[in-house]
Amino acid sequence: MQVKIADSWKNILQPEFEKAYFRELTSFVKSEYENHTCYPEGSTIFAAFDYCKLNDLKVVIIGQDPYHGPNQANGLCFSVQDGIPHPPSLINIFKEISSDLNVAYPQSGNLEKWAKQGVLLLNATLTVKAHEAGSHQKKGWETFTDEVIKQISKEKKDVVFLLWGGFAKKKSKLIDKKKHHILESGHPSPLSANRGYWFGNQHFSKTNAFLKSINKKEIIW
């Protein structure tokens, strides 16, 4: 696996690429991609960083694992490629946006347009074997993505972190709460959303209200 990360992130993340755990992770991922079908495509493993420049960063959304079905994952958490049916969590995200902001339900599940506005769509694990959820967890990706969160917390200020579900909420310990704005809720998956832990969280309008309060451009969700 060739590590090609966008220039704007290189300065703060380059040290990680030199570490032993990352070298082991690289050889594991390379072997998995050579011997099995894995997602996302190799060229889009670091897409979250390609679309969202560090200087433009306003919002971080943390997911857990890429989608493991064909043609779904595109390197951005919760996002799917154009023309692909929306997975259940994404449907609930779009339903909340629609009711929160009084806008039409979006047609495309591709969230590149969010990323280009400064939303880092970061999965904790950046790769997965086809049809095997969680198959690349605990191989080193989490160490890397935790460091990403720490570095953002250290280098930036007034970033909105959207932590959805128990897994994402645990990441709050990596964030300086005095410098940043954290919003938490249940996960948008049907299991959590149907129990009343997701709908009505108004995270999208709250994010924009905060950005407006610090004279930053609001996100067009």
UniProtKB/TrEMBL annotation:
Main location, first listed in the record: cytoplasm
Start and end residues of each Uracil-DNA glycosylase-like domain: 49-211
SMART domains assigned: UDG (SM00986), UreE_C (SM00987)
Top-tier EC class: hydrolase
Domain of life according to the entry: Bacteria
Family named by the database record: Belongs to the uracil-DNA glycosylase (UDG) superfamily. UNG family.
NCBIfam families (UniProt xref): PRK05254.1-1 (NF003588), PRK05254.1-2 (NF003589), PRK05254.1-4 (NF003591), PRK05254.1-5 (NF003592), ung (TIGR00628)
Function as written in the Swiss-Prot or TrEMBL entry: Excises uracil residues from the DNA which can arise as a result of misincorporation of dUMP residues by DNA polymerase or due to deamination of cytosine.
E.C. numbers: 3.2.2.27
Protein's GO biological process: base-excision repair, AP site formation via deaminated base removal
Gene name of this polypeptide: ung
Keyword entries, A-Z: Cytoplasm, DNA damage, DNA repair, Hydrolase
Catalysed reactions, semicolon-separated: Hydrolyzes single-stranded DNA or mismatched double-stranded DNA and polynucleotides, releasing free uracil
Subcellular localization: Cytoplasm
PANTHER family tied to this protein: URACIL-DNA GLYCOSYLASE
MF terms (GO), sorted A to Z: uracil DNA N-glycosylase activity
GO cellular component, one term: cytoplasm
Entry protein name: Uracil-DNA glycosylase
InterPro entries xref list: UDG_fam1, Ura-DNA_Glyclase_AS, Uracil-DNA_glycosylase-like, Uracil-DNA_glycosylase-like_sf
Ranges annotated as spanning the membrane: none
Active site (UniProt): 65
SUPFAM superfamilies assigned to the protein according to its UniProt record, in alphabetical order: Uracil-DNA glycosylase-like (SSF52141)
Lineage of the species this protein comes from: Bacteria, Pseudomonadati, Bacteroidota, Flavobacteriia, Flavobacteriales
